[in-house]
Amino acid sequence: MEHKDLLDALHVDPALVTGGDLEVTSPIDGSVLGSVQQDTAASVSEKVALAVGAFTKWRAVPGPRRGELVRLLGEELRTHKDELGRLVSIEAGKILEEGKGEVQEMIDICDFAVGLSRQLYGLTIASERPGHAMRETWQPLGPVGVISAFNFPVAVWSWNTALALVCGDPVIWKPSEKTPLTALACQALFLRAAERFGDAPDGLSQIIIGAADVGEAMVDDPRLPLISATGSCAMGRKVAPRVASRFGRTLLELGGNNAIIIAPTADLDLALRGITFGAVGTAGQRCTSTRRLIVHESIYDTVIARLKKAYEAVTVGNPLEGSLVGPLIDKQSFDGMEAALKKARAEGGTVHGGGRVLDDSLPKAWYARPAFVEMPKQAGVMVEETFAPIMYVVKYKTFEEAIALQNAVPQGLSSSIFTNDVREAETFLSATGSDCGIANVNIGTSGAEIGGAFGGEKETGGGRESGSDAWKIYMRRQTSTVNYSTELPLAQGIKFDI
Ligand code: UN1
């Protein structure tokens, strides 16, 4: 299917994807997919006003009824999974299998949110005063601003939107300016769900398109009590203080520099599969991609030999035609990869793989062979996140050293260990183990399910979204004490009689 037919099948109004001032291209071959109209600070302000209006109505709708809208959105996503997955591949360059996987992640969070819509539970708390009842409830927060990145162009919106909607909050979404078409497709599917729902207020879900200036208008708007932003640490470093200065809340999902430890007892067949998916999958462009490998010295040579074989077998090419690795998103990304490999060589690294491919047949696209680099020690380029398929490998002697290496980077998103030693596995997951938001055993660093809270510590930003109790950030907590007695005793036994 051509992208135009896909947009049609996804019910995107053709007028929205032509004649605009932002050209959209496919990383697969550099071809132009359309052009969309960018927002301005003024149009962002109007959209926020509409969202505020929607909030006053939506917050009064019972949670389970709000869940019904999300159930319908999930149905639309199920019906359109193949088309949306394919459009994700065309616009973001990830392989079809992963494009569809991303849509499945959207369906999963919708299912989760529907169940949640009948919970949203608080607490009852023992009061120290006779004839008093104390409770804690969760109330809708207000319109939520969502900023997402090109690499998960649709799933991140759904993680936020499915939860925000059942929590009673409208959403305004600024997708990456590299992937506006998939965003328009999500919005079209949302509008179909809203139509079937019947009485959803206008402006429950809206999109703003544009670059950083448009994002700033949203970030600075005090009518948006929560800004949920996914992207680089550099972006988060700008967004967080701006939102904090107006006492807004942020949910930040920033960079990762994720490591896998390969212990002497590791099942190397499992480990190799976990490493390759984590390091070369999505062309190394997941926030959870495996960027560092910490290997016990006793198995180092075996692991390197097996990695060489695995990397040679990886197919790089058109993501719609069965390759395992698609293109990088753009030239800047490729240049970043080249610069990192150059730096790694200068720091004494031995590079396996890397380099541009398919430039003859696809001169406007940026395909690279994934690379792994044997480093003499963990330093320099290895502690930086390069959003490309590069994995650095170092040796370790003692388990304590492996954990120290794992933790010695500024980011703290995902981590994993391959071991069959229960002491190592449990220590890795303990207070003295991995310092990351995600810590896995005998599974790679990427590809988390939606049921758990997703996010990381340190420069990853500390936010948690998707499963578990991540919904609480989309709500305001209220503590209430009700006096059903005929006295007015004061807490802490204070006497204050007139
Ligand atoms: C991201 O790269 O921004 O755990 C999100 C994973 C996916 C999400 C990645 N479920 O790899």
**Order of adjacent strands in the largest pleated sheet:** 12-15-16-11-10-18-19
* Rg result: 24 Å
Percentage of β-strand residues: 15-25%
- Given as residue ranges, the uncertain stretches (5+ residues, pLDDT < 50) are none
- Chain-averaged pLDDT: 97
Terminal residue distance: 80 Å
Helix-and-strand structural type: alpha/beta
> Which ligands occur here?
2-aminohexanedioic acid
- Please state the oligomeric state of the protein chains shown: single chain
Number of strands: 23
Largest sheet: 7 strands, mixed
Please bin the fraction of helical residues.
Answer: 25-40%
Q: Overall 3D geometry? A: globular
Number of helices: 14
Structure, described:
The longest helix is centred in the N-terminal third of the chain and has 21 residues, at 96-116. The chain is an alpha/beta fold. The strands form 7 sheets. The chain has a 7-stranded mixed sheet, sandwiched between helices. It has a 5-stranded parallel sheet with strand order 7-6-5-8-9, sandwiched between helices. A 3-stranded antiparallel sheet has the order 3-4-23, with no helix packed on it. It has helices at 3-9, 41-58, 63-79, 81-92, 96-116, 155-167, 180-197, 212-219, 233-245, 268-280, 300-313, 331-346, 399-407, 422-428, and strands spanning 22-25, 32-36, 123-125, 132-140, 144-147, 171-174, 205-207, 226-230, 249-253, 258-262, 290-296, 350-353, 356-357, 367-368, 371-374, 390-396, 411-412, 414-418, 438-441, 453-454, 457-458, 465-466, 475-483. The radius of gyration is 24 Å and the shape is globular. Strand 8, helix 9 and strand 9 form a beta-alpha-beta unit. The protein is built from 14 helices and 23 strands. 2-aminohexanedioic acid (UN1) binds next to loops.
